[in-house]
Records
---
Amino acid sequence: MADPEGPGAGRGRALPGFESPAAGTEAPLEMLAACHGRIERHLDLIERLAGHLARAGADASARDAAAQLLRYFGTAVPLHHADEEQDLFPALHEAVAGSDAVCLRALTEGLATQHRRLDAAWEALRPVLRRLADGAPFDAAADWPADAAAAFLAANHEHLAREDGELLPMAARLLDAAALAAIGRAMRERRGIPAV
């Protein structure tokens, strides 16, 4: 299967086998944006996995991809949502007043609601990917939840577009260095990363 990082990147790597450089917690907005890029690549992996299953069945590459997706969406994405809901959203609320605060609250509440919907949509895929990763008998035509996968992909793409188009640019305009440093500290603590 093609490497999700693009032509020539990571030659010889099969599904999933990719990692990308990441911004660190000292630049929390860049780290959130980099995470969005990794989410997009994992969404692409879901699409490619469906095609791979149809062509090659539940082979070792498919099992590895399923395991990669379980790790990423089971660990990194919940941390990312916590970064936004527990640190970024409150910092933004502290930075604005008046009618801007009302608009911001509508945005952050809408995004938090989308997080819950994304979590629920993930739960429709997770058990199927677990079976696949564990090597259980798997019939791609009968067992792959195409509608649930399509709904998960569409909801994520819509959500990421809103965060990249509205939330992160707003945060870059409104948050000062002290607020960004506090967000970065909280991100490190959440992940058990020593202070820089």
---
Amino acid sequence: MELYATGSNAWGQLELDPSTPHDLNDIFEFTKIAAGDTIETPIARLVYTIVKVDGVYRVAGHLPDRSMAPKLAEVVVRANGDSLRLEKADPFLTLSKNVNGKIEEESFLVTQPIKKLVGFDTGFAILYQDGVVATMGDARFPATLGRQVTEKEPAEAFASVDDLVQLQDPVKHISACGYATAALTKMGSVYIWGQHPPSRKKERPFLPDLFAFANCTDIADGRDIEDFALGETHAIALTSDAEVYVTGNNENGQLGMPSITSTRTWTRLEFYLPQCSRIIGVAAGPHTSFLLVSNVDY
């Protein structure tokens, strides 16, 4: 397998090979940064990237204690530093908060198996094994929750995104970053909710159909989507026939298309691989994008 990356590299967060000199310039085209028999989906945060290659965690970027990589790979974080983790031994989620320099923890009972946790700037989302998605977060940003906030289901407690439950098409994957969350269903549809970052309010939304409730996003004229990832103001999608489409801002090269500064329409990425190679997954950090490539001919 191979891992390709593009985008912000100011902290060396795309420099996984310790034997090569660091070049902290942003990367504007997808470039191979790792190879191995097995490569897991990278965990990309603002100033560092963690990737498990052949069973070993590798780190790029600013992470002073790199021995923490396995633990950091098991938690999700939001912008204020709060982290959420699933306890292995007990059916609880633990939310860790820094309150006046002291770490305080709050536990949430888990009533059903969890498939994935993600964090965004103001909260968290859960994907349960049965395909249901639940969110919790800051009540000041209700659009990021994708659901009604009520006395019975307050913003600060996990509650299901009912618009997705009514689809009768279970969610198989979720991605979140910035102020938005996306859900990919088993039938290949993508639903997104949230808002454009308040700090960039002078810009047009990076997704024209970004609303407070889950909204189906038409990608590549309705093609089935195999994988999907969100950055802070960009998104990347992999179709079932292994084509990649991108949209959003490209100021750091996160779209992998050096000829444009941004796009508000889903645009096909021209990316050529050797024979017997196929893109099998995508990922994103706040200002980076990744392609997972298999060397087996499917």
---
Amino acid sequence: MAIVSSIQGAQKDNLKSFNNYMMQVLEDDWQKEKRDFLQSLSRLSTLPKRNTNLAGGLSRYTLMPSSASSPQASSGLPAAEVMPIPNKTIIDSKSSVYAGVVKDLNDARGRSLPFSPATAFRAAYESLSLDATGLKSVTMQKVWHLIQALVGEGSTHRNVSRKMSLVVGARRHLEWGHEKYIIETINSQPALAALGGSVGNLQKIRAFLRVRLRDHGVLDFDASDLRRQPPVDTTWQQIYFCLRTGYYDEARQVAQSSRAAYNFAPLLAEWITTNGAVSSETALTASEECEKMLRMGDRPGRPGYDRKKLLLYAIICGCRRQIDRLLKDLPTLFNTIEDFLWFKLSALREYSSASSSNVANEGLVPYMLEDLQNYLNKFEPSYYTKSGKDPLVYPYILLLSIQSLPAILYLSKEVGEEGYHVDAVHISITLADHGILPEGVGSGQKMGVMDACAEADSIIRQYGSIYLRNGNLDLALEYYAQAAAAMGGGEVSWIGQGNADQQRQRSSMLKQLLTEILLRDGGIQLLLGPSGMGEGELKKYMMDWRSRQQFLLEAAHRCQEAGLYDKSVEIHKRVGAFAMALQTVNKCLSDAVCALAHNMLDGESRAVALIQSGNEILETARYSSEASVQDKDLISEQQIILRQLEAILHIYRLARAGQTVDALRETIKLPCLHLDPQSSNVSVDVFRNLSPHVQACVPDLLKVALNCMDNVRDTDGTLRAVKSKIANLVASNMSRNWPQDLYQKVAQCI
């Protein structure tokens, strides 16, 4: 039997081992198939795109693969070594790292320290390693680099307007991407590129041209014996690709050292020096050269790469007519959207009134940013995104054409598991902080400066409200501060350098948003600290004591209007407005006493708590240095009201306990009602100096007194005298519309 059991046990072990082995084999096979599938997708994404034959030049251009913006080929920023948390969604991961940057940004702005939000947000995004697969042509990492280039963090563009500074930033981003592309091209064919140990920019361009022009024969910079077949002249290729890659000094060097570009060199030097704002004379010279080349046409046998000369002169010229004709006559001029946009961004000009007359006389109407925007906006978003397969292409194109607000609005509506709406919020924060949102409204949009700021404020505020609803007041405050700053023009609003309208808008929005936080549970503790009003977060956003006090008084008033009396009392106490706090307590105590008179269960406990709160306020006010002589007089008035209401509450307690004689005695002793039977029957307006809160309790108090007298024998006529005084009091106040049952009760007693 033991032998049989051991055999069965061995068989079970073998079967279990076999099952485990087969599961491992299946798992390995599945992982291999998954890797092969992803690699095939990656290869497909880098293949040249087919033309769609749509009307217009843009239909021929495609986007370069996104490998240039992979984490391994970033702009040199050190990616944080923070890996995504395994069980977190992409949205949670983005929200977490971005929130840390927002905190740092607010802290820096509050202390007037330098901070680069685009750089910080980009580094935070890269720390998540979300774009490592590189399956899309445009990734959010690439978008963040573009944002960084647009706002000009780490670089300065002198002698240009804010709008042209954005254009230069977009162009520099495209040049950065092209530099990655030529390096990848060189690395893909190192033997043909023959870069060797050279690391200079011009050497990289020439190595790139060896690969690009490999079928054209010996290139001029590689020719050793000029007596043989003439080498290929690459002057214009070198200049163009130096500019396209951002190597401006090298482009100028090639132009100055070449006989072929001798006349072009001074034009190029002026274009580089002025950031494209060349004189009308220079533009006219370049335009005439363009006309000459376009008239010559593309002759048979003429090398196609000579077209680079035409492109370069068109860039210097910046004339709308020449550019439109060039693209019409040479529809295959650009292979990618990036090349197309770089050319357009390089050629466009600002139409200044100073040179408008000269330009009009010469017929050189400049190609402007609005022309580019109008052209790009002819195509539907689905055209750019390939019906949603590459969703970031459209906002990327919008950002490149300085249409930042439409790009943000588009991203904010992309609510999916990729979390692009989260990115939109933080792009809004970045652009708003730099104060450039009004420049990025886009063509055809009739929006003012404040309209653009209000759009950003709305996006940021709605995102912050999510934290508010979830009880995370700390982060809600951080985002609300940025929403208000967006209304005020960004960074300038923190230091009071915005215009008067922007400062007013920021102040109004900040008060509104801070009040929302203040009204939440824990809001007072967060904004004001454990005591007083200068130990919490509020002092970061309102540094002036008087401003904080005024804001808190307004907030307390709003709390009262909303029926949040406890918060109103607490805020008034923090501000030192003890009389106003007592007034609110007395109002609530009056309501509680009336509720007790109508036999509501929670009336007494609520009244006791309010009396305790009032006593605490009086104790605090007694030792407070903030209370003035006038405040102390107001506090004394409210203290009298508190004691009157406390006395009425005591009478109700006695009556409910069956101590009717004691209840009557205490009622008669109340000086505010003049019910003492020993006093004269002179008519007195008892309500003239009586608080409305006490007045509200009088009808119920009189009914209680009359009910008590029903249960007490009148041995000496005292009760009859009290009844008479009550009847006179009621008769003299018929206009107050007291309850009908009180009138009936008085009539019965008489």
---
Amino acid sequence: MRLFPLLVASSLAYTLHAQATQEQAPPKPAEQKTLDPIYAQASRESARDHEYANTTTIDAKSLQSRQATSLRDVFALDSSVSVGGATTTAQKVYIRGLEDRLYSVNIDNASQYGNLFHHQGNITIDPMMIKDISVQKGTPDAYMGAGALAGSMSIRTKDARDFLRDGQRYGALVGLGGYSNQGFKTHLAGFFALKNTDALLSANWTNILGFSAGDGQWVQGSANNNKSLLFKLNQRLSERNTLTLSYNGLNETSTAPFATNLAERNVTLFAHTNYNHTATLGFTRQADSAKPSSTQVRTNLYFNQRSLYLKPLSQAGANDHHEVGDKNIAFSNVGYNLALSNQFSVLDLEYGLNYQGVFVADTAAPKDAINRAKESGHIYGGFVKTTYTPSEHWVLGVQSRYDVFNYFDKNNQTHLTQGFSPAASITYLPTSTLSLRASYAYLTRGAMPGDATLLGDKDVLIHKNLRPESIQNIELNADYSGSIFCARVAGYYSRLGDFINSYAHDHDHSDHIHTPGEPHSHGGLRQNMHAPIEVFGYEGGVGADYKGFSSYASIAQSFPTYKGYLLQDTYELGAVSGIIYNLSLQYEFPHYHLRFAWLSQFTQRVKYKGYDIYNDQTGFIDKAGYSVHNLYINWEPLGEKRLSLRLSVNNIFNTFYIAQTSPFKNEAMESLDSSVRRAMPNPGIDARFEVGYQF
């Protein structure tokens, strides 16, 4: 396949002001118009939500209107974001073809780092908790960018003031919903806000009893039972000082095969239990309004633990593969972040420090002198970021991180890696509605714990001299935002070197430890790859807002390659899909608080000769194309934040399809030519009705 004609421009820009910078003193007009992530506050979705190609922003109102229960629902409007896996347990996010493991993902400034299981997703959150999401593609936010290679994803949870109506001091919300594809949801919340204190307690239960695919066949392992809890307390200590305490937790259970992203027969069924607990304590000191150049302070402590329990419910199945077995894994992150910032007349400055500790263990795994079935890592880093605005037409941005990574692996080896992560961008604004931007970033990530399910596999060893991974991201952007129309286009190129492949065959027996008196392992070896991964891609979109009507159409495609071939789907790295087109239409009757919306997603068939980096071989891959169409109706007959009636019909034409970013192969060591695709199909038609009332 000829790739270079498809390179529209070059890569993933860096957004100069993150959400927390917006919470400072009001930004300068040029910066506010073109650089800051935008969190839509309108009562309906708007084409304006898609103004910037290098930033994806999603708010709670958008998620509520789609009755989002999964990551597939969350990112449904963005053609550059694909979600593989059919159930909420299995879903992985691919942004511009790269897995979310290459991004820095945080919830309320708490890192969600870690890969519990390659057959499950990495981001675990109930969409009902989400206030907004900002995804920065290419260069991560410097504040939370430690260990990020492709960008950053920042998720904020709701607080009491997101529920309260104007003038309301306390209230409660009750919600109940049902799904035609066998499921229901309940939601309860209580909240209050005084002059200096506000608090929220919210609980949600979503029980999907299972679903049928578009061909009418019941999908084994498709049930999910999710319970979530959110607590948020904000205490204003003084005019400038605020303390925030938050907790969000999710408990997810299901009965499914060992690999939840696969549709398999004659295999052992397992009881799957997943937990995700995140707690943060944050402090913010605003700059003195009388002294604009005074220092703003943001700091937080956090704890995150994700756990996975797998217990077989039946005797071994005829089609079980070698890795099937009990798992009792806990993956913990603890950390501290500090950011200081100052605003001068033409210069903004932000700088700070980060620490993160990572601890993972599988207590159900066998242990010996070589394999201790647990790992740990520590990141010590600092950053500085400047934004220089010499005139209303030019904005220059420069940032850099320096991080040290200390990794103690399961084979009792210590890896000390480090590196700088500089980035720069230049933005030209010829008019108030048009911005042209170019950016470059060189990002470094040191060796850290990988796939936790490999901890108990004595045949998978760790190379004794792991090198830090590094990536170069280049991007060109053009963004237009007029009174009615908006448009965006981006082209990007990324070159990822020394990628640490956790699933490589052990071809180099001299570069790792082995059990004395025993032969070298002929299983897996976690090691750096010798050749770079290159990613070419583009995305673009056009939209319009006129009175009650809103529309947006977008297109995106990326080309992750290795040694001149497109990649075979690779855990912890990326997946290939065809061209993706999205079309969304919406009309609102403001007087009646009634909104109708339609979303169509088209994914073209992709057929190619792909490179299998697990086995250093090539093979032919063919993924079918599909189109999926959804209808959304939202009515608030008593006005906003009172009575709500929502109807969603997903996959309205009952299309049978397997998401192209779901895995093509079952096992890493399996030959590509002999592989039969067994990824779980996505749900068929699913009508959802929800009623909610806020007191």
